[in-house]
Design brief:
about 525 residues; 13 helices; about 30% helix; 5-stranded mixed beta sheet; alpha/beta
C-alpha cells in the first residue's frame, strides 16, 4: 500500500509541475502526402505525439517529450477513443478485480425441492451478463436444493435511472448492436447471434445463441449458385414478439451455397421477454422445472423479499479488454455508470458518473477545460477532448498501478481487435537484425510487458464524420511513443491512410530522423 502511495504521489507531483506549451510542428512528409490525397483540410485534424522515456534507476514513473503537435489543444470529437478515459478511470477507482453482482431474492418459501413464490432478479449493471453467467446463476439456485418453482419472475432494474436508457445519439439504426442502451440487467447485450451454414446435403442450417425458451426459427432461405460475397444483401431477418412472450425469427432470401459458418447478430426489441426466455432455458438446462410458465414484470426489491443467492460476474479487467479491443459501446457505458452506483448506492445517471471521472482527473492534477463526457463510450455527438489531453490519459495509463491491464486491453495492429487488419503489409516487412532486437529489448525493459515488442497498440474510433486513433507505438529500435489523432470532418471516412502513415512513421522511428 505504501509503495502504491509513493508511486502515485510522484506521478501527481510530475503532472502538477509539468507545463505543456506545445507548438505546431511540421507534418512528416508521409503524413503530409496522405493528408493532401484525402482532401481533408489541415484544420480538421488534431495530432499529438510524445516520446515516452525509459525510466532511470532513480525514477518511479515514465516521462515524455513532445515530438509532433498539430491543433493538439483543439476540442475534438474522439469517437471510441473516449473509452480509454472510461476504462482507465474505472480500473483505478474500482480496481481491476472488481466484480459486478446479480442478486436473487424470493417472496416465497422453500418446501423440500419446491420454491413456492416469485423470484426477483436485481441487476447492478454487469456489462457481461452473458448466457454462461446466467447458466451459473441457475446452477447455483439449483444447488440450494430447489428443483421445482411455482411462481413468476420480477426484474429489478432500479440501479439505473430511467434516463440512461435514452441517448442523444441517433443514426436511425436502433436495432444495430452498437446502439444498445445501458440496462441494469443487460442479458447477452440484448442480442441474438445466429450461425448460418449451407450443409452438403443441400439444407441450410441455422442455430442461435443464447438458447431461449419459446423461440421458433422460420427458415425460408434458398441456396443459390454465386460467390459468398456480400451475402447479407439478399437475406432479410425479422424478429417478431408475441404478447405472450414468444419469439419468432423469420429468415427470407437467398444464401450462396459456398457460405459456411456465417454469423449475424440481431438486437431484440422486447428485452424482458428475451431475459425471461433465457432464464427459463437456463433453469431447464440446470435440471429445474417450472410448474407453470412464469409471467414476468418490472419491480423493485422490498422487505417482503429474502435473499437466495448472489452471483458475481467476471472481473472488471476482462470487461475492459472487451471494451477496448472490441470497442463495445454498451459495456463502456455500464463501466461509467458503475462508478456512480458504487459511490452513491442508488439509481444513477450519466451526469453523476461523468462528475466522478472528472473528479478522478482532478486528483491527478489534470483539469481538461474542453472535456465533455456524455456516456463514456464515444458514441456521442457532443463528447469532446483534445489530442494533447488524450495523450495525457495515455501517460496516466503507462504509469498506472494497473498499467499491464490497461496496455493489454488495447487492439494490436495486425493481430486482434479493431486493429487486426491494419498495417498488416507494414508489419510483414519487418525483419529485425540481432542488433535491432538487442536494442529493442534494452530500450523497453522498464516498460509494461505488453510494450516490449515492436508494434502499434492502438484504440480506434469511428463515427460518420470522425476517425480517431490513440495508443502506443514501439518502434524497431525500441522507442515508445504515445500518439493520439482525431479527424472531425465530413470526409473523415477517407482519413484512415493519414493515420496509417502516422503510425508507420513512428514504427520506423521517424522522429529520430528529423
Amino acid at each position: 500500500m505504501m509503495k502504491k502511495s509513493i508511486f502515485q504521489g510522484a506521478f501527481l507531483c510530475l503532472m502538477a509541475c509539468a507545463h505543456f506549451a506545445f507548438a505546431q510542428s511540421p507534418l512528416p512528409k508521409p503524413v503530409q502526402n496522405a493528408l493532401q490525397r484525402s482532401s481533408i483540410p489541415g484544420q480538421a485534424i488534431s495530432i499529438s505525439v510524445q516520446k515516452i522515456e525509459a525510466k532511470k534507476l532513480h525514477q518511479s514513473i515514465h516521462q515524455s517529450n513532445s515530438v509532433l503537435q498539430m491543433n493538439a489543444t483543439e476540442p475534438m470529437n474522439p469517437a471510441s477513443t473516449m473509452k480509454l478515459l472510461t476504462s482507465l478511470s474505472a480500473m483505478e477507482i474500482l480496481g481491476p478485480e472488481y466484480r459486478w453482482k446479480t442478486d436473487l431474492f424470493t417472496n416465497g418459501q422453500i418446501e423440500k425441492d419446491l420454491l413456492k413464490g416469485d423470484i426477483l432478479i436485481k441487476g447492478y449493471g454487469d456489462p457481461k451478463l452473458i448466457p454462461e453467467e446466467i447458466a451459473k446463476l441457475m446452477q447455483n439456485l439449483r444447488a440450494l436444493g430447489i428443483k421445482r418453482i411455482q411462481g413468476d419472475l420480477i426484474f429489478d432494474r432500479s440501479s439505473y435511472d430511467q434516463s440512461v436508457r435514452q441517448s442523444s445519439f441517433s443514426d436511425g439504426e436502433p436495432l444495430r448492436a452498437y446502439n444498445v442502451q445501458p440496462d441494469a440487467l443487460l442479458f447477452a447485450f440484448h442480442s441474438l447471434s445466429f450461425q448460418i451454414s449451407a450443409a452438403s446435403n443441400g439444407n441450410i442450417i441455422i442455430r442461435q445463441t443464447p438458447r431461449l425458451a419459446n423461440l421458433r426459427i422460420e427458415n425460408n432461405l434458398k441456396l443459390t449458385d454465386r460467390p459468398c460475397q456480400d451475402w447479407k444483401q439478399n437475406i432479410d431477418i425479422q424478429v417478431e414478439h408475441t404478447k405472450a412472450g414468444a419469439i419468432t425469427a423469420i429468415f427470407n432470401g437467398d444464401l450462396p451455397q459456398t457460405c459456411n459458418n456465417l454469423s449475424w447478430n440481431v438486437v431484440v426489441r422486447d428485452v424482458d421477454s428475451f431475459l425471461k426466455n433465457g432464464i427459463i432455458a437456463a433453469w431447464e438446462d440446470a435440471g429445474g422445472v417450472w410448474l407453470r410458465p412464469p409471467k414476468f414484470k418490472e419491480g423493485q426489491l422490498t422487505n417482503s423479499f429474502k435473499p437466495l443467492h448472489t452471483h458475481y460476474g467476471i472481473p472488471l479487467y476482462e470487461s475492459v479488454r472487451d471494451v477496448n479491443k472490441l470497442s463495445n459501446n454498451v459495456m463502456a457505458k455500464q463501466l461509467m455508470l458503475t462508478l456512480a452506483l458504487e459511490r452513491n448506492g442508488r439509481a444513477q445517471n450519466n451526469e453523476n458518473a461523468a462528475a466522478i471521472m472528472k473528479e478522478w482527473l482532478k486528483k491527478k492534477n489534470l483539469e481538461f477545460s474542453e472535456l465533455v463526457i456524455e456516456n463514456g463510450s464515444g458514441l456521442s455527438r457532443i463528447e469532446r477532448i483534445s489530442s494533447q489531453h488524450l495523450n495525457e490519459i495515455l501517460m496516466l495509463g503507462i504509469n498506472s498501478f494497473y498499467r499491464d491491464y490497461f496496455v493489454e486491453s488495447l487492439p494490436i495492429a495486425g493481430v486482434d481487435g479493431t486493429m487486426k487488419h491494419r498495417l498488416t503489409d507494414k508489419l510483414r516487412q519487418y525483419f529485425p537484425s540481432k542488433k535491432e532486437l538487442a536494442l529493442l529489448e534494452k530500450n523497453t525493459e522498464t516498460f509494461p510487458v505488453g510494450l516490449r515488442r515492436y508494434g502499434a497498440y492502438i484504440k480506434t474510433g469511428s463515427l460518420v464524420d470522425v476517425r480517431s486513433i490513440s495508443g502506443y507505438v514501439v518502434s524497431r529500435t525500441g522507442q515508445v511513443y504515445a500518439v493520439s489523432s482525431m479527424i472531425n470532418h465530413s470526409l473523415a471516412n477517407t482519413g484512415r491512410p493519414i493515420h496509417d502513415a502516422l503510425l508507420s512513421w513512428l514504427l520506423d522511428d521517424g522522429p529520430s530522423h528529423q
